[in-house]
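Model it.
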Amino acid sequence: MYTKILLVVIIIILSAFFYLHSQNPSVVTFVVTKERTYELPITLLVFAGFFAGAVLAVLNSLLVDAKRAIKEMRARRERRLLAQAEESFRKGTELLVKGDTAAARELMEKALMAKPADTGMTISLSETYIRENRPKEALKVLETGVLHNPNSIGILIAIAKCSAESGDEFRAAKAYEEVLKLDPKNIYALKKLRDYRVNKCMWAEASALQKTIVESERDDGISRKEKRLLTGLLFESAGKYAGEGNLSEAVAKVKEVFKNDDSFMPAHMLLGDILCRQGNAASAIKVWDKAHFKYPNSEPLMLRIEDTLIKESAPDEILERYKREIISHPNDTNLRLLLSRLYLRLEMVDNAIEELERLHIEGEDTFYPQILLGEAYLRRKQSNKAAHLFQKALGIDREFFPPFICSGCGHDSKSWTPRCPSCAEWNTFVMSSSLAASNVHSGKR
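Modeled.
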């Protein structure tokens, strides 16, 4: 049918040509040079142009068809290679699961040659080296992979993990930084990089990362936990600035702690310490006093006030403070023990014995009151060898600091610290008259 139509078209064109040629006998003279000229009928010139255009159109069509054919041939070849690569990768994955890492690696290398930018193949190939405890080779594969695919978060995280396993924490941290450049709110990378910063005591950087984690976390329970961690990191940052003598920046960080959690007692302690270093003991005492009345388990604040007033030669004031507090909280054994300790510090031994014996009669016969009473008897020369050896064996500081215990994990300590060395939580130490962890939740203030 196509041939017949084409034949009809050719006949029509030729008929038109002869008809026009008979009706237009005029010629056109073309001058090439003075000696060379050509005369052509007008109709022949028109139809020559027509046929030239037709020829060019046909040639162009042939060229386009040739290009398309070549392109399709290349595409078929690429599809075949990709299919072979996928098959090699599938077989390699199966072998990797079976534990044949060498054979799996051989197949995956072939697959990766066909798809060098494939994230999954790159990571799987590196896994074959990791299975054989060859992190350097695995890292080399991943580094090559990231050159082909620089925006692959998966490869960057794999580089970070591999670097950490090989002990290169610097490269691991750098990889997580690169992840965050691509995805600033990647929770996994944020937490990992934060942990590296914490291990290096880079508290300011760690707290900045933790702020982003808190802002990005959607789960309310996890968000509260992360916010508590942010409080601790901000506090450590403030402490570091204070230790370096940058008190203004330390105060600014303490204010951030209060904004995050006003009940965080270590921050109140630190702010008072900073004010003392600035020569403003009165303001420090006001800070501690305000926090003491506002929050529970604040005996460390009273101890800090006690030390400061004694240094300021105002022992009567701290005695009055303890007495007022005991009147307000008559069942608070810790306050009475702290008052007894103060009596001993001020050599008011009879007062200490009277208060401690009263506590003993009331049934308070645990570790700390025994130590205080034993020291009081020693000072009144009423001791015996057993009591003396008992005190010596315990190795208690002559200042008789009360014992503290972590309300989270039960770790005991001879002095209050902002952070528990056992569970690494902040603001968990409370005063305990006994070193037994079972007394942590005794219901006392």
